[in-house]
Design brief:
Number of strands: 19
CATH class of the largest domain: Alpha Beta
CATH superfamily of the largest domain: Bira Bifunctional Protein, Domain 2
Number of domains: 2
Helix content: 25-40%
Number of helices: 15
CATH topology of the largest domain: BirA Bifunctional Protein, domain 2
Radius of gyration: 29 Å
Low-confidence stretches: none
Shape: elongated
Structural class: alpha+beta
CATH architecture of the largest domain: 2-Layer Sandwich
């Protein structure tokens, strides 16, 4: 059996022959009829000529007759080549390999097994493939190959293509919802002087003309809030953000984020909107509000739960927030839970680590956690009468975060003080911290209306709708370590 190099060399020889006798890579081809429509509308008395463009996925030769399977986005169809009909053009069969793109036209007929087939009257190679397809179309299995060479994965794995379409449909449904509700879609800078709006490590690049370092954005927040300051009342953006952090089945350094901001509403209004948003998108993408994920049946119709941050800690971790007043009390609780937590973290940051380990994994059905500690929420408005907490919620489904939202902080003095305090604590403990954006604080001094803001990870939403467990299945080209 020839090895891959021999197969490639044989295909190159065929390419050279085709170039000498024509062009196996034409710029223009005849339009293709939709395969699914051809099959659904088939009539034995139809004498129309149909044209198909697509990739050859199977080749069967029986004497002076050959059959090829041709696939494109509209489906798969069989074509028949007969030497007595094609005469000299029948010799093109020896130049056609699996993976080639061809254009073929002819009349329709049904075989003895009732397979709708095109009896070819004209056929041309329109793109000669120089490498053989993966594993004879049975699908690429190795995840390393699948993620690194997504084109091969898409060629041979139907599921991968379905996931790519589902992700596209998720974005489309999100846009549809916001447009229908009067929001205006905006575009904000990817390269920024300050990487603010979230606690994350940024990627740094250098602008040659300006001769200064810039950050790839870690969120969309601070520029969208400037639009509220400028007079817009309902804005949203869908865009890539970049966080120079770990890679896992739930995290990718580059991901797609939705953020929306609406004037004159608070975080409770945003929570109601999120329920409407996710149920709308689920119906559009998955066609149902009940979604299976392994053993879990996620009910998006009427099984939404609500807890405060304090209630969740007590219910799932047995911790009473108000009873932990100092480091000694907290250390005892951490030891009791058997956790290993960095002792340099601040009080509320340590509690949040407990939250992540003991609470979040148990939030399987859609659950809103309201009212987070002020210390870990520098961009949210404090709760009146209880300044230890802010008007913030996170939404959890299947044990991980889907959305984060605030009643946005619009007091410029409070905003700057809290940013400065965060930086001080970060310098002492080594926490990740949101950087101070002086330009944003100055913009806030011109006045921003009360507003509710939302951030939602789109890949995770698509994972929910498709029942997938890894973000790498949703992201077409996930971050991977370079080949040596």
């Amino acid at each position: 059996m020839p090895n891959e190099e021999e197969l490639i060399n044989a295909r190159k020889e065929k390419r050279n022959y085709l170039i000498q006798h024509g062009n196996p890579y034409p710029a223009r081809v005849n339009a293709s009829n939709a395969i699914d429509k051809i099959k659904s509308d088939f009539n034995i008395d139809d004498q129309s000529i149909y044209n198909i463009n697509g990739r050859v996925t199977a080749k069967r030769k029986m004497g002076k007759v050959a059959f090829l399977d041709i696939r494109n986005e509209s489906g798969k169809i069989q074509i028949q080549l007969k030497k007595e009909k094609l005469n000299e053009q029948y010799e093109i069969l020896s130049l056609i390999d699996l993976g080639d793109f061809i254009s073929a036209s002819g009349l329709l007929f049904a075989t003895k097994t009732d397979e709708i087939t095109i009896a070819v009257e004209e056929i041309n190679i329109i793109s000669k493939a120089l490498r053989p397809p993966p594993e004879k179309w049975h699908g690429v299995v190795d995840p390393e190959i699948r993620y690194r060479s997504r084109h091969l994965d898409l060629i041979s794995n139907k599921r991968s293509k379905e996931l790519a379409v589902a992700f596209s449909n998720t974005i489309f449904s999100l846009r549809s919802f916001f447009h229908k509700n009067g929001f205006i879609e905006m575009q904000t800078p990817v390269l920024q002087e300050s990487a603010g709006g979230a606690a994350a490590k940024p990627f740094i690049t250098h602008h040659n003309q300006l001769d200064q370092d810039l950050f790839l954005r870690i969120s969309l927040e601070l520029h969208l809030k400037r639009l509220l300051i400028g007079g817009f009342e309902k804005v949203f953006e869908i865009g890539k953000v970049f966080r120079n952090e770990g890679i896992s089945y739930r995290h990718n350094p580059e991901f797609t984020l939705l953020e929306s901001y609406q004037a004159y509403v608070d975080y409770k209004d945003v929570a109601n909107m999120v329920k409407e948003l996710i149920t709308f998108c689920a119906q559009e993408v998955a066609g149902s509000l009940t979604i299976m994920n392994d053993e879990h049946e996620i009910n998006l119709a009427d099984n939404w739960q609500e807890l405060t941050y304090v209630e969740a800690l007590e219910k799932f971790a047995g911790l009473k927030y108000d009873a932990i007043n100092n480091y000694a009390d907290l250390k005892k609780q951490i030891q009791k839970l058997g956790m290993d937590i960095d002792i340099n973290l601040s009080h509320d940051a340590m509690l949040d680590e407990i939250m992540k380990k003991f609470v979040e994994p148990q939030l399987i059905q859609p659950t809103f956690i309201f009212d987070y500690p002020t210390e870990i929420s520098p961009l949210a408005k404090k709760i009146e009468g209880n300044e230890r907490f802010v008007e913030r919620f996170e939404l959890f489904i299947l044990g991980y975060e889907f959305a984060n939202a605030y009643s946005e902080l619009n007091d410029p003095v409070d905003q700057k003080e809290r940013m400065i305090e965060q930086v001080k604590k970060a310098n002492q403990s080594g926490d990740e911290v949101e950087l101070i954006d002086e330009d944003f604080v100055e913009a806030l001094e011109y006045g921003m209306p009360p507003a509710g803001g939302l951030g939602l990870g789109i890949e995770r939403l698509a994972m929910l709708f498709t029942g997938e467990h890894s973000i790498r299945e949703i992201i077409l080209f996930p971050a991977m370590k370079s080949k040596e």
